[in-house]
Write a structure and sequence with these properties.
The complex is a heterodimer of chains A (293) and B (320).
Chain A lengths: L1 H35 L3 H6 L11 H8 L3 H31 L8 H9 L7 H21 L11 H24 L4 H9 L4 H12 L1 H17 L2 H6 L8 H12 L3 H21 L1 H9 L6
Helix pairs in contact in A: 1-13, 3-13, 4-7, 4-10, 7-10, 10-14, 12-13, 13-14
Chain B lengths: L13 H4 L11 H29 L2 E4 L5 E4 L3 H9 L1 H33 L5 H9 L6 H11 L6 H8 L16 H26 L3 H9 L4 H12 L1 H16 L3 H6 L11 H10 L7 H25 L8
Antiparallel strand pairs in B: 1-2
Helix pairs in contact in B: 4-8, 4-11, 4-13, 5-8, 11-14, 13-14
Classes of the chains: A mainly alpha (293), B mainly alpha (320).
Chain lengths: 293, 320
């Protein structure tokens, strides 16, 4: 009897410790959230207090004076379109790389060429992408100076860059999933007169939904939060994505802690809300591919 | 050549001589190009060509501030980089320290947490969901929040230290060359502990109970169970996570850029931030030199990935 009481006590002690650890993990978020609802003067007096009633003026300023609405729009646009393009393009490629019908010499080699890009440090493409876009912009400006080209640092170029960054991972995951879809399914559909195009959209895509949802989750987080390419390629203030805007915003607001906290929350809340609703899907999606050997 | 033409005049053995292979005109090229084409095109345009260009630029001086003027210099950049560049050495050292710390501290710690939860502790679901949240936010947000956490006057760390009387330990965490890198490494640990733990937990859950029971019946105590049975079974997962953590830290850019910019005095400079600084924040905006750095780092990361994969990953499949 004594042993099991001790064991029980041990378990509850462990739970207590882990709860403390949980506080360490989510604490920074909670602190920032509280600070976003306080005027900076209050924060400077006591960084850990609470202001009541909550000071929501920061949030109002964020949208009116600091134009966060525009940055949110940019992030939503870029991430949204990039997600659609990436999903369609990579699913199609995975389809082509996985079904035996489409085997051709060098298919494996081609797949591997795409797959190894997973190991590339981003700098290897970043600098030249910057150079390439700069050169194209200059050429376009020289060719047709009357037209105001929105190419350099444009949101559309970011969409393409993000799609390219996701190719290796998506195609790898989706190909491995698609290749497990039984051939009989495909044969049956063909007997019914399915063309390749219909086969993809009517058969493979619906069946592949779990794996595709997985890639969408991972891509969503990675595109929404992406910083390196954004800070290098986006030069126009109006085209900035949220992470970028956040950095510049904190630079301007510099000691206005309450305001910066608000900005941080604005960046984070869209993702957090989605996460709280779909947490299992997020976790499954973001850990896919790292599980097995 | 033996004549296999039978009495009917038909070559009956032709199928034995020719290799069995799909005839090239039977392959549905139209569909293949339609499906694989777009990805391949984007990949070629936005990955292959830029990589090639980076290699090409690395043997030139490419002055952005002088209208993209190019000048061949051969291996001059590489020579300077490998012999004469102290900042590069520091950046490499920092990146390696970071990567090794992550492998040696982050991963075992996450495994430890997973093992605790593995023993069917209550509130596991709460822990999973809450510990995973750092993965959702961008490094920019993380960087700013932790600048406050590490703030000298009112930050969490120093306030707590002062509160328990450890005033002597109070530091300017991000501004002190001795503690800056360590402070950043704690941040990345914070970010990924949930991720690593969740994966370990899933791996642990895939171990069949019969195995654990059988070991218990054979008289295994707790420690033996963990080290002799459980850990070897999740080895491939652990190796994967190790590689991911190592390579990830070698590429670390955003957190440093937002919190310390590589300071103080390059004590948190990573190769990635150095490339960025060199390309865009230097007196002479030369793209050639940072391209050489990028090429060298590219090779280093590739080499380590191959090294780890070859040495640590076993090909055998454990049947159970």
């Amino acid at each position: 009897m004594k042993r099991s009481v001790l064991k029980q006590a041990g378990r509850w002690f462990a739970v207590l410790l882990l709860l403390g650890f949980t506080l360490l993990i989510v604490g920074p978020f909670l602190w920032t959230f509280v600070m976003s609802l306080r005027p900076t003067n209050d924060i400077m007096e006591n960084a850990y207090g609470i202001t009541w009633p909550p000071y929501v003026k920061n949030y109002v300023y964020a949208f009116t004076e600091f134009g966060f609405a525009q940055y949110i729009k940019n992030s939503v646009y870029i991430t949204g379109v990039a997600l659609i393009v990436t999903t369609v393009v990579t699913a199609m490629a995975a389809f082509g790389f996985s079904r035996t019908r489409f085997a051709f010499p060098l298919r494996e080699f081609l797949f591997l060429t795409i797959f190894i890009s997973i190991m590339f440090p981003p700098q290897i493409t970043l600098l030249s992408l910057y150079e390439g876009v700069a050169r194209i912009s200059r050429a376009l400006a020289k060719l047709m100076p009357e037209v105001e080209w929105r190419f350099q640092g444009s949101r559309e170029s970011m969409i393409l860059i993000y799609t390219a960054s996701a190719l290796a991972f998506n195609i790898y995951i989706l190909r491995s999933f698609f290749s497990q879809i039984p051939q009989d399914l495909e044969d049956a559909a063909r007997i019914d007169g399915c063309s390749d195009w219909q086969m993809f959209w009517r058969v493979i895509f619906p069946i592949g939904t779990p794996a595709i949802a997985t890639t969408i989750v991972i891509n969503y987080i990675s595109f929404w939060n992406e910083f390196l390419y954004a800070v290098t390629m986006i030069t126009k203030q109006k085209a900035r994505t949220l992470p970028l805007a956040m950095m510049f915003f904190a630079g301007e607001a510099s000691v206005d802690i309450g305001m910066i906290a608000t900005g941080l929350m604005v960046s984070v809340i869209p993702v957090l809300i989605l996460y709280l609703i779909l947490s299992e899907q997020f976790i499954k999606g973001m850990t896919a591919g790292a599980l097995k050997g | 050549m033996s004549d296999t033409t039978g009495r009917s005049g038909i070559d009956t053995q032709a199928h034995r001589r020719a290799p069995r292979r799909k005839k090239l005109f039977r392959i549905p090229w139209g569909s293949i190009v339609t499906f694989i084409g777009p990805s391949l095109f984007l990949y070629f345009l936005l990955i292959i060509i830029p990589v090639g260009m980076t290699f090409y630029n690395s043997v030139h001086i490419l002055r952005m501030d002088l209208g993209m003027r190019r000048e061949w210099v051969g291996l001059e950049h590489y020579a300077k980089l490998l012999t004469d560049d102290l900042i590069f050495r520091m950046a490499v050292k920092n990146s390696f320290i970071w990567a090794i710390f992550a492998s040696v501290v982050d991963i075992p710690f996450a495994l430890f947490l997973a093992l605790i939860l593995y023993s069917k502790l209550p509130l596991t679901r709460l822990f999973r969901i809450s510990w995973f949240t750092p993965m959702l936010v961008s490094w920019v947000v993380v960087g700013f929040i932790f600048r406050w956490v590490y703030n000298y006057d009112w930050g969490v760390v120093n306030t707590v230290l002062r509160g328990v009387g450890l005033d002597a330990w109070v530091r300017n965490w991000l501004g002190d060359p001795q503690t800056a890198l360590l402070s950043l490494m704690v941040i990345t640990m914070w970010k990924f502990v949930g991720f690593n733990m969740v994966i370990f937990l899933a791996a642990l859950s895939s171990i069949p109970d019969e195995l654990v029971d059988a070991a218990r019946i054979d008289g295994c105590n707790r420690a033996q169970l963990v080290f002799r049975i459980v850990i070897p079974l999740i080895r491939s997962t652990a190796v994967n996570l190790l590689i991911l953590a190592f390579i990830g830290k070698m590429k670390q850019f955003a957190l440093v850029w937002v919190s310390t910019r590589g300071g103080p005095m390059h004590h948190t400079e990573t190769v990635a931030t150095y490339v960025q600084n060199r390309a865009f924040n230097w007196r002479t905006l030369d793209l050639g030199y940072p391209s050489a750095i990028a090429v060298v780092w590219f090779i280093v990361i590739l080499a380590f990935t191959v090294l780890f994969t070859r040495t640590l990953q076993r090909r055998e499949v454990l049947e159970f």
